[in-house]
Amino acid sequence: MGVYEIVVIALWAMLPAYVPNNAAVLAGGGRPIDGGRTWNGRRLLGDGKTWRGTAVGILVGAALALALNAVEPTASDLFGVGLPTFPLAVMVALPTGAMAGDIAASFLKRRTGRQRGAAFPGLDQLDFVVFSLLLAFLADPNWFGDVFTVPVLVAVVVATPLLHLVTNGIAYALGLKDEPW
Question: Which of 32, 94, 156, 158 has a CA positioned 20 to 30 A from the CA of residue 17?
């Protein structure tokens, strides 16, 4: 498998995990998941993690996986790469993992004294990837092993921070985020 094919498969397979946090930003607001609770004087998560944003993020990611399944034959022909389809459990696992990873990162940020929106290099770019991959593996280990080969996993780990910086920079420029990371 060549580099082009590896990168295309990596990006395709991760799309349902890449989109949920962006959707959550657009649909955010509402009741915070932590309900304002604190631990040792610090919020558990903060106002940025809401039930509505989380639910919308998961739904948008799952809907995207469903749409990708619908266009897979055409996309495979267009890109010249055999693209995977998403089993139902994975359609839910990838975006749920993305949101869970972001929530876990928020918890870690609060524990280390970082305020909402403060940068946490490495964690900010890969938190959702780790949780998405873990939940996808648990949802369907055979599918995971077929799709996320070692070269594809390497491509995900390399491409994700770059995509994160670009998409967050765009959201910041459009006024959708308060900080560009």
Answer: 32
